[in-house]
Design a protein that fits this description.
It contains 16 helices and 8 strands. Helix 4 packs parallel to helix 5, helix 8 packs across helix 13 and helix 13 crosses helix 14. The longest helix has 23 residues. The mean pLDDT is 95.
């Protein structure tokens, strides 16, 4: 069998995962639409736009030709922004073979349909959603490429495919666990970006550690609440894709979502924030999708609701905090009903 692996596309996270794969496999093809970027990666082994100053392994081969990138590959790892996932998967379809392993590592929803990425990919490839493996967990690209110890999870109801994905990525610097809860892992990875925006807002307002700790804790409660409603195992949200990824994304200046929230908290308008970031901030699109999902399901997501109004309705961050602090009194353990908990433990 070929030892070739393909990564689509060459952003910071895609490049970082290509670097992990290059330690395990003889050929890693990295697809990009940008010919200058491909020439730089092949000539200088640097992706200067997304990971400046980082030397990439020499067995990463960048190309703008999708057929060249995918042909003969045993696995395809898709790391496209959520807004472009359907188009990338559609472009992949002519070169796709059922025996290929498909992994995606994108944390977000399709804005228009509110669908998870595994559903979008499966629709375009014409396969079952369970054939798509989700990779998620606490993993900044900037640290992964520097070989900092990193631990993630791969998830699918198909045990054979999750085992193959684990084997594809795991090495001494990049530890990989498996999980059968594809829905929970995917939801956790997307929804934590909303709470990371909120953590940045809190820091931008100068509210300190108490406020941020409360935000993360109650944020995890509402992520779990909507996740269980959509069929996820509540225990997933206590794992790497849940609390692990939430902590790293909401507390680190590597996090685009935290940085965007911080600037908003300092009073900068959203357009200016997005222009200065220069990269996709998934939490903004995810907030819009999650707000609509919470209304459709009738599930309370108060932090998401307030961040939605800050982003899209002109509410000031300080007013949003006042609204959260002034909510009706509630018991803490409202997130998951006793009946749901007993269902998972029966």
């Amino acid at each position: 069998m070929s030892d070739k692996v393909t990564v689509l596309v060459a952003g910071s996270w895609g490049t970082a995962l290509a670097s992990v794969l290059a330690a395990n496999h003889s050929e890693v093809y990295l697809w990009t639409r940008n010919s200058d970027q491909a020439a730089q990666i092949n000539g200088s082994h640097i992706n200067n736009k997304y990971l400046p100053g980082i030397s990439l392994p020499a067995n990463i081969i960048a190309t703008t030709d999708l057929e060249t990138a995918v042909s003969g590959s045993k696995a395809v790892v898709i790391v496209a922004p959520s807004s472009g996932m359907r188009q990338v998967a559609r472009s992949l379809k002519p070169f796709w073979k059922d025996e290929m392993l498909c992994v995606h590592a994108t944390k977000g929803f399709e804005t228009e349909s509110k669908k998870r990425m595994s559903i979008v990919i499966a629709e375009e490839l014409g396969c079952d959603e369970g054939q798509i493996v989700v990779l998620s967990g606490p993993s900044h690209a900037e640290e992964v490429v520097r070989l900092c110890p990193t631990t993630v999870v791969v998830a699918s109801p198909d045990d054979k495919r999750t085992a193959e994905a684990q084997e594809l990525f795991i090495n001494n610097d990049f530890r990989v666990y498996t999980n059968r809860d594809q829905v929970g892992v995917e939801l956790a990875g997307a929804l934590k970006n909303i709470i990371a925006l909120g953590a940045g807002l809190s820091d931008g307002l100068g509210f300190g550690d108490n406020a941020k700790a409360a935000l993360l804790t109650r944020g995890l409660a509402e992520i779990s609440r909507v996740g269980v409603e959509l069929g996820a195992n509540p225990l997933t949200f206590a794992g790497l894709a849940g609390v692990g990824d939430l902590v790293v994304t909401a507390t680190s200046q590597h996090s685009r979502n935290w940085r965007a929230g911080f600037m908003l908290g300092q009073g900068k308008p959203l357009d200016e924030v997005l222009e200065s970031m220069g990269m996709v901030v998934e939490g903004i699109r995810t907030t819009e999708a999650a707000y609509a999902i919470s209304i459709k399901l009738g599930v309370q997501m108060p932090i998401t609701d307030q961040i939605y109004h800050v982003l899209f309705k002109g509410r000031s961050p300080r007013s949003a905090v006042e609204a959260l602090m002034g909510r009706d009194r509630k018991p803490e353990l409202e997130a998951i009903s006793q009946e749901t908990w007993e269902q998972w433990h029966s």
